[in-house]
Amino acid sequence: MTAPRRPRLNTVRIGPSGRDTVVLVHGIATDNLTSYYFTMAPDLAAAGHDVVMYDQRGHGRSERPSTGYHLEDFTDDLATLVDDLDATGPVHLVGNSFGGTVAFDYALRHPDRVASLMVVESEPPTAAWATKMSTLLAGSANRLRDEQVLPWIEGTYGWHAARLVSRSRPLLQGTTIAADIAASRIPAEERWRELDLPVLAVYGGTSDLAGMAPWLESLLPDCRTRQVPDHGHSVLVGDPRTVGKLMLDWIGAGHRHQAKAVRV
Known about the structure:
The protein is an alpha/beta fold. It has helices at residues 34-37, 41-46, 71-84, 98-109, 127-143, 149-157, 159-174, 177-182, 213-219, 235-238, 240-252, and strands spanning 11-14, 21-25, 50-54, 91-96, 114-120, 199-204, 223-228. It contains eleven helices and seven strands.
C-alpha cells in the first residue's frame, strides 16, 4: 500500500546557517509560527542560531488535509522537516503547548537527533492528555456553531483573539482532528524514564499545568522546570521577554546531550 502523501508545510528559516539549529513548534488550533516569529525567534537568530519555524499541518499557510491528525502524524511531519534541514548536528527543539507534546514525542522516537528540549506550557503525551485534548477540540468545534460565540470572544478578549478563533474553525469543524487525537499512539509511561537528554519545562505560575512540574522532574532523567509568575497558559505571548530570555540562556548555556537510543 502506498503511504499517504505528507501535506506541504509552510516553513520559515532565519539566522546564520552552519550554527546550532533551533526548531520551534507551535501549539494547536489558534496558533501558528507567527507566535514565535513576532516574539523570540529574531532574538535567537541575532544570537547566532539557525532558527526554523513552521506551520503544522492544518495550521497557518500549511496544507489542511481532511484527515490525518494523530499525534504521530504531527511527529512524522517534524521528523521529515528535521531530516530535510541538513543541520550540522542534533537540533534544539522548542515546543509551545501542543507543539511541546509533539516535540516530546519526536525526542522519544529520535533521541539521537535532539540536542536539547525546551517546552512551554506542555506535557508528554499520555492517555489522559489524549482524552483531554480530544474533548477540548470537539467542544470548541461545537461552541463555534453558536453565532454569538465570536462576538462574545471579541467583546471579552479583543478583536485579535476573535480573529484567531475564527481562523481555527475550518480545522476544528472540517477535519477529523478531535477523533484522531483521541486515537493517537501513546507511549508507555516507563519509556519516558529512558529519555536521557536535557529538558527545560516552563509554565505560567497560574496555569493548571504548573502543578505537574514535580511529576515531570521525577519522570525524566534530566529535567528542570521554571515558572513565570502571574501568567497562565498563554505565557509565551503574554511575557515573551521572560520566556525568550529563558530560551536564550538555555540554548546558549550549551545544554546538549547525545541521548542513548530507546526502543521505538
